Amino acid sequence: MADKAEKQAAKREYRMEELARLAGITVRTLRFYRERKLIPPPRREGRIAWYDDHHLARLRTISALLERGHTLNGIAELAEAFDHGRDVGDLLGLGAPTEETPVRLTPEELADHFAGQATPENLAAALELGYLGTDGDEIVHISRRLLDVSSALVHEGIPLAEVLAAGKHVREHADALADLFADLILRHAEETDIDRLRPLARSVVEAELSLALDRRLRKQN
User: Fold this and answer.
1) Of 22, 63, 68, 216, which has fewest CB within 10 angstroms of its CB?
2) Rounded distance, CA 67 to CA 135, Å?
3) Which positions ≥6 away from 48 have C-beta within 8 Å?
4) Rounded Cα distance, 155 and 115, in Å
5) In the sheet that 138-141 helps form, which strands lie side by side, from edge to edge?
6) Gyration radius from the chain CA atoms
7) Beta partners for 49?
8) CB count, 10 Å around CB of 155?
């Protein structure tokens, strides 16, 4: 009986008036959002339209983004990019080992991280790069470290678009370095030693990057 009640709660649906009340908007506003395709179409049962928790979450996100200064046109573009984003399982690989910790974010939390620069263009670039994926109504950033560093760079005054463009170039070089070290390890060690040798490869890259930055800074002084 408990399982049945839980399933019914999970599948809860709302008529238009109840959904509008829960979202803190008028029925007229809800109709306007639906006409603008800011929310997905409801399930139809005869002449009755049924909405669910996905619609409620989207309406609350729209209100939060409007409070942060986003326009309805911008929100519509964000919603389209969000709806066409890749599933996070495709990005991370189910069960794949990683040292990175994914972070779940609402669209408004993402906007807060990047000081108003979470534009449709930047969101599309991050989705294409594979920094962001989707999981139901949530956005998932593939790496807590990358999220924190990207956010810090933006708050230091570097535009998010340039941070993402740099990330694309770093990804290309990182893939080449990963190929080099993976080949080295697999030629000279047992496959079971990869986890033990992985931090050594990372340390080489970190040290070389530090030395390269030293050389670059000396040239500019």
Assistant:
1) 216
2) 24
3) 15
4) 7
5) 103-105, 138-141, 132-135
6) 22
7) 44
8) 11
Number of H helices, E strands in the chain: 11, 6
Bridging pattern class, strands 132-135 and 103-105: unpaired
- The 10 Å CB-count burial string (b at 16+, else e) for 192-216 is eeeeebeeebeeeeeeeeeeeeeee
Asked if 142 and 92 count as a contact pair (C-beta separation under 8 A), the reply is: yes
Of 175, 91, 100, 93, the residue nearest 126 (C-alpha): 91
What's the CA gap between 13 and 89, in Å, rounded?
A: 27
d(CA 123, CA 131): 10
Q: Which residues of the chain have pLDDT under 70?
A: 1-10, 82-98, 136-137, 189-194
Single-letter residue type at 19? L
